[in-house]
Amino acid sequence: MSEATEETPGHRYNAALAGRVELRWQNYWADHGTYDAPNPVGPLAADDIPSDKLFVQDMFPYPSGAGLHVGHPLGFIATDVFARYHRMIGRNVLHTMGFDAFGLPAEQYAVQTGQHPRKTTEENIETYLRQIRRLGLGHDERRRISTIDPGYYKWTQWIFVQIYNSYYDEKLGKARPIADLETEFAQDKRRTPDGRGWCELTRKEQVEILDTYRLAYISEAPVNWCPGLGTVLSNEEVTADGRSERGNFPVFRRNLRQWMMRITAYADRLVDDLDRLEWPDKVKAMQRNWIGRSHGARVRFAAGTEKIEVFTTRPDTLFGATYMVLAPEHPLVDKLTTAAWPSTVDETWTGGAATPAEAVEAYRVAASRKSELDRQESKDKTGVFTGSYAVNPVNGKEIPVFIADYVLMGYGTGAIMAVPGQDQRDWDFAAKFHLEVVRTVQPSEGFDGEAFTGEGPVVNSGQENGLSLDGLDVVEAKKTIIEWLAEHGHGEGTVQYKLRDWLFSRQRYWGEPFPIVYDEDGVAHAIPERMLPVELPEVDDYSPRTFDPDDANAEPSPPLSRAAEWVETTLDLGDGPKKYRRDTNTMPNWAGSCWYQLRYVDPSNSERFVDPENEKYWLGPRPAEHGVGDPGGVDLYVGGVEHAVLHLLYSRFWQKVLFDLGHVSSEEPYRRLFNQGYIQAFAYTDARGFYVSAEEVEEKDGKFFFHGEEVKQEYGKMGKSLKNVVTPDQMAVDYGADTFRFYEMSMGPLADSRPWATKDVVGSHRFLQRTWRLVVDEQTGEPRVSQAEASAEDRKQLHKTIAGVREDYAEMRFNTAGAKLIELNNHLTKVYGSADGTPRELVEPLVLMLAPLCPHVAEELWHRLGHADSLVHGPFPVADEQYLVDDTVEYPIQVNGKVRARITVAADAGKDAVQSAALAEEKIAALLNGGEPRKVIVVPGRLVNLVI
Prior knowledge:
By secondary structure, this protein is of the alpha+beta class. Among the domains are: 294-493, Isoleucyl-tRNA Synthetase, domain 2 (Alpha-Beta Complex), CATH 3.90.740; 886-947, Roll (Ubiquitin-like (UB roll)).
């Protein structure tokens, strides 16, 4: 205990006392396994497991070496409060946290220092755990996982093999084992591409056919290749000017052999099942837009002996197609590029080159240096003519075929029919290259712009063969043209998606190895489960081989290729020992986070990735009374909106494959999603524009000074670069973890971003000090509670608070729950602060309600109130209905629509009594001046409306 001084009593709640209390209870919880959640079966099983369960999950954190700032734990504290409340009302709550520990930062550090990324990562995890344990988070420590543990990534590899050994059955709308497909071929229920019988094919030919169906497959895919770094980069790692964010090297778009996931097979289910999820509307909209399902038509344009296929959502504008554009990477570009320019060619079409081949080659190199984002957003349209013409099928006109970087191979078919009259990008291109514009939609009256993108009657769309769209509206014109295209073999109606198959390869060391080997014929073989995990080998150099930064044609050489003895191996896969070559790519960091909710359920199972009974208990669909068609999944998933698309889409895809194959009972990984806001902070720059330490800035007369020099204040995300970081460690030292928790939860609605202000934390600390004083005598340390009965007014205040706080906790309104506790505390302090003691019947419910927000001080006060057991598992107070009913009701009185007075009457007063009281009110009586109102309307419990 701290020593008493004349100024500070020895038992006052302060930072030092809070620190001792918090450490004591954290040790108690750890020693007693207080937060251990029992499973139905297995090593974590217990008898009489409650049927009422709750699975709460935080988005997988990456253990950064920088540690946490106060913005990071916002969501973690929120899920802890939510979990604690439900644990107190008797539910079996699973709440834990693991680490998404593979990643580029640790590998980059390894490249710079030579230190193994595992050592760096494990040190970062220990730092992270120390920080979050200091906050008193109620995690089941037995369930912690890390994606870098071989016991975990064994099952990541196993899931990959399940996906690899599956195909999507379009008729059944689900994944099935690839062995079933092979049986259909063998039984002639499916025909081979060239019509030969299955038994007539070599095994290699059979495998090549099966590979075209697999959900995980190898393909020549366009990627961001950075020879200067020796690796493929994600779009997010490429700057707008087509250079690597790290090192500023040129980045080229080129095709490389990569592992792909056929996520597009699930596009419809991924869109349609969003309606079954309790997710924010904005996240659902982001996923729908990313998948980009649109209805339209595929149209084929003849170009010599080739056919150029395009997808368009506006086939009604076909008569306005005056040229075509292919992406520079389109496979038909080489075939369509002619040896010489036509006799008459516009100079703007040639790019200044002597031949189409030279123009195309130069343009392709230039385009490969741009990022997809830059290609899409660039307003300066560029391109070159291939020398070939295509034939518009609806009117027989020859139209030139260009390549241009504003068309991407990853969208649609990589080719477009350009309709400059109805598309602004096409208009801009046509204007620059002097191409014809034909309007096929009548612009609205007064339109004086360029491309008209609205809807209207079809014009300029008729021909002699009987096809005419003129005068039709868009819907009818689409229907007519699609029927005509199908009848004449030029196309058909179809559904198109923006979504592209998932690129699943990385040329890096620090990731999960692929459980795939290749035989001497180059045929891929999946590693059987008995040989998993395929562990990462030791290497001397963690960096990929780098090349001349401008050598776009260099072939990747990943770090794993250096482990020669590991790459070249002899295995017995069931048909005797043979030589194989391992895949030297690794999986992306998304892999481990696609399924971690399943491993939390059963973290120590060495026989299966999850036991079916445990999975069904924690993640299975709810009974019918909770809603028909419940998809199952985690009951509450909390994290930032920045993961709205990729992580959430990828994990949904993996879950659906596992569901189709019968490995899980839940169709979706996350039933309910909540996106917390961000904590932002002020930052300060000096006259040079350099950031200075925010902690050392002083405010004087509305201006800000750093060591006497005036600085400029700005507002942004908290981070090291802005020198405005505040750590939770420092907050815990200065005020205690409970104060920090209460402040973060009381700053505003959880979904909103909010500014951090350290000076405001003291308000939360004072609240806890007042609560402490209601229970503990600051001079003696003894409890100061009485057995006296509370007044009716006190009970009414208490039970209204209980009802409101229970509702707020259940709805994640933690800021208003805290406000209600402050209000109750202020009331009790006012009435009993100077009395001999606070009635036990009032103070015990206050302590229990405080526990989810401030668990350490609540445990300590509960213990000092004489309770031997922890309050973690309750009870949580229940409101007495008799104290929730108001004795009186206030009615506003409106006269001709304006409030003129108010009356207070008994809560059970009838309409006649309310009307009489309203008419007798002094101001109303004066307005009536002895007369009668024309009309009186009494809305029970709400208002009185008079018409006079």
